[in-house]
């Protein structure tokens, strides 16, 4: 039986390599073993495959629930609770997905456009001219404010200041290699008090949970079905049996929305600011397109701009925030890309390696938005939000927010990179973020 090959070093050493240098690990694996290789770097699976071939990904995603099933994402179970959509399987996952999808699509999502632009302007206007700031920190502030406003429909209320602080502290903890290691090495999850990594981590989670449950109880007692925020919409939702979401289900999905909904978008926007200011010709072309809309353009007009879309897509391609898709597990022996896979084998789509295939993206290391104007890529060739039944439900809102925040910043403010040193990606938990946060100079209001 033909099995995919892979590195021969011990799995524990491969895990360390993957934690400390994920891109180097994946690049080396691809150069040596090509489109599919064994990479036992997550959990205790001896057969854990990374696939970067679009045809292989198509087989994987279109055969969901047949030869493959989408198990819970064990890697994220440390971050999100048991009833999060990330951790559910089968019928429970399908039920939750149906309940969660409506608030993120159509007119409901578009209603948030003006709020996104206003919050961006408000937070950027607080910066002092000619000072250096971290783009990643500011975009995180913006993204947290947006997600709190969109999810809870409340802005600048005292009880949310603490939640905002705790969320930022929680996500920033993943810049520590020791905290990131908790995701990959379960034996490190020992609570030796608040100063120990796991103890610190768990106490942050508990404080966030207390605030969220208090808000859920308050909103239950003061329920207003006319509100358009996501929490109200989820409270109003009913499944096929007429059942509403329990307090725990609401809490667990709010955690998912707060963490996955702001962290990834903030990282993507900070990368976009870096690339646009690294290449002035790209910035000038983007500003020309934005200025063509005139004063005070409507959010949907901004959203539809072709070059802005290309810049955002290229940002998500070159360093995708999520490096891997949600895993699939083989139900029974099956063939994939000419290999026989045994039951129990875990298979991940490798987003990063797919996005750097030279047959799809010539000069893949070069930031070139035009490639998205020259051709259209399939969902198996460009997949920053994963694929199949586990594709990110917040994709539309994330892209909407990314475009509006980037457009608002560029249209209204003058920025520059603080130095000419290239910014390299580094692991931030399970995501890929710019090292150093992208240091920039805030020059002040833009004069047109």
CATH top level? Mainly Alpha
Name the CATH superfamily assignment: Cytochrome P450
Q: How would the global form be characterised?
A: globular
| Count of alpha/pi helices | 18
The portion of residues forming beta strands comes to: 5-15%
Distance between the termini: 66 Å
Fraction in helix: 40-55%
Secondary structural class: alpha+beta
Mean pLDDT over the full residue set: 85
How many strand elements?
12
How is the largest sheet built, in terms of strand order? 1-2-8-5-3
Structurally, the number of domains stands at: 1
Question: Any idea of the CATH topology?
Answer: Cytochrome p450
Based on CA atoms alone, the radius of gyration comes out at: 22 Å
How is the main sheet built? 5 strands, mixed
Order of helices and strands: HHEEHEHHHEHHHHHHHHHEEEEHHHEEEE
Regions with pLDDT < 50 over 5+ consecutive residues?
Answer: none
What attributes does this structure have?
about 450 residues; alpha+beta; Cytochrome p450; 18 helices; 12 strands; about 50% helix; globular
Structure description:
With 448 residues, the chain is of the alpha+beta class. The chain has a single domain (11-445), classed as Cytochrome p450 (Orthogonal Bundle). 49% of the residues lie in helices and 10% in strands. The strands form four sheets. The chain has a five-stranded mixed β-sheet. The protein has a three-stranded antiparallel β-sheet with strand order 4-12-9. A two-stranded antiparallel ribbon has the order 6-7. Helix 6 packs antiparallel against helix 7, helix 8 (158-172) packs antiparallel against helix 10 (197-221) and helix 10 (197-221) packs across helix 12. The termini are far apart.
């Amino acid at each position: 039986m033909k099995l995919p090959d892979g590195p021969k070093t011990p799995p524990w050493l491969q895990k360390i390599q993957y934690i400390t240098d994920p891109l180097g690990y994946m690049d080396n694996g691809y150069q040596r073993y090509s489109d599919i290789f064994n990479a036992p770097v997550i959990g205790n699976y001896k057969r854990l495959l990374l696939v970067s071939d679009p045809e292989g990904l198509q087989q994987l995603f279109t055969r969901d629930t047949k030869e493959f099933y989408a198990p819970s994402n064990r890697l994220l179970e440390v971050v999100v609770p048991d009833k999060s959509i990330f951790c559910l399987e089968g019928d429970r996952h399908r039920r939750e997905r149906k309940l969660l999808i409506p608030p993120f699509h159509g007119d409901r999502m578009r209603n948030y456009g003006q709020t996104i632009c206003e919050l961006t302007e408000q937070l950027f206007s607080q910066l002092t001219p000619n000072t250096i700031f971290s783009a990643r920190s500011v975009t995180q502030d913006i993204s947290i404010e947006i997600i709190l406003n969109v999810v809870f429909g409340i802005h600048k209320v005292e009880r949310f200041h603490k939640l905002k602080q705790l969320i930022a502290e929680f996500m920033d903890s993943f810049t520590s290699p020791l905290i990131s290691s908790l995701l990959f090495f379960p034996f490190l999850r020992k609570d030796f008090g608040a100063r120990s990594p796991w103890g610190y981590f768990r106490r942050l989670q508990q404080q966030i949970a207390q605030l969220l449950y208090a808000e859920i109880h308050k909103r239950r007692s003061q329920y207003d079905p006319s509100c358009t925020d996501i929490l109200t919409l989820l409270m109003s939702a009913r499944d096929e049996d007429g059942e509403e979401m329990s307090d725990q289900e609401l809490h667990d999905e709010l955690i998912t929305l707060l963490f996955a909904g702001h962290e990834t978008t903030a990282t993507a926007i900070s990368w976009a600011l870096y690339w646009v200011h690294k290449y002035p010709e790209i910035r000038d072309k983007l500003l020309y397109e934005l200025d063509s809309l005139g004063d005070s353009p409507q959010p949907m007009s901004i959203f539809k701009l072709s070059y802005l879309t290309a810049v955002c897509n290229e940002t998500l391609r070159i360093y995708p925030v999520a490096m891997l898709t949600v895993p699939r597990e083989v139900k029974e022996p099956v063939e994939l890309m000419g290999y026989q896979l045994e039951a129990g084998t875990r298979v991940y789509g490798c987003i990063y390696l797919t996005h750097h295939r030279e047959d799809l993206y010539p000069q893949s290391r070069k930031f070139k938005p035009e490639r998205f104007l020259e051709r259209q890529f399939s969902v198996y060739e460009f997949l920053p939000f994963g694929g199949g039944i586990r594709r990110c439900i917040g994709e539309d809102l994330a892209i909407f927010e990314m475009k509006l925040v980037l457009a608002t910043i560029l249209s209204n403010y003058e920025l520059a990179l603080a130095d000419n040193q290239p910014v390299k990606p580094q692991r931030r938990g399970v995501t890929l973020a710019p090292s150093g946060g992208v240091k920039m100079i805030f020059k002040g209001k833009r004069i047109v």
